[in-house]
Design brief:
two-stranded antiparallel ribbon; two-stranded antiparallel sheet; 10% strand; flat; disordered N terminus; binds zinc ion
Length: 289
Amino acid sequence: MPLRRILTPLFALAILVVAASAIATQAREKIPDHTFEREIVVDEDGLQQWGPWDIVCPTCKAVKEIDCPLCADRDVPNCIECGGDKRAVCRTCAGQGRYPDPMVEIVCPYCRGAAVYPCAQCWGKGSFGVTGNARDEKCRACDQKGGYECEPCDGTRRLQTVKFKKKPLAEADLDDLRELREDLKEVLANLEGFEHDENHRKTDKAFQSLLKKNAKAFPVLKPVGSMFSKVYKGFVKVGVQYEGFEGKVTHQFYIFQDRAVWHLRHQILVLDKEIARAEFNEAVLAESK
Ligand SMILES: [Zn+2]
Ligand SMILES: [Zn+2]
Ligand SMILES: [Zn+2]
Ligand SMILES: [Zn+2]
């Protein structure tokens, strides 16, 4: 039997230390407050309409590209976001130079506008260093691709505002908007109340069933669940033998849970603004009758 085949299982048993440079340990990100102002104009019938929206991208100032946020301070020759160029499409404006109108669409919170979700094991590189090893380890978690195409936005970097039964909010009436708001509030409570079990497999099962159950009211949760499944399965396949696995796998759950919560809160805020406008307009119409 060749020596390698004897040694490999021995290595697999040992807890290996992934080189610090390969994966920066991330603290749980604080979800920023959700607030935005949206200009209203009153049309000739006295009804409120959303004013024009044309905001130059505050991140790239309409240059449309930025220094790659994924590999800024690392050597990543095949970076999944920039291909190794070190320059990437601007995440904030999706390379359009204009900031998205929050009543219509937002920067995809699941990839944060990158169009890709980095692998939890190699963080966009396709390989990772292990302390004591001269050469990088090929990453089997992502098949050396460095990550996954973002499924919620399908690689478009933006997500459209929720609809009421496929109707855009502007065409929905007040009752529709209120009904949708109630439904989203319920999904939000379900997601916020999700508890992690110490057993990751149990957490995964419960998380997947939670996303599935709530996808009827908030359809984006379906591709969110599908992408999470890929990230999670890949990471569990490879990462379990490395130091820090427990914290990192929990971190992945939190990322997806927190981003879905953020997304819901934002959509409810959009609905609040639509409802306020619809209430105003309904009052105007009732008076003119
Ligand atoms: Zn930009
Ligand atoms: Zn890069
Ligand atoms: Zn995305
Ligand atoms: Zn990987």
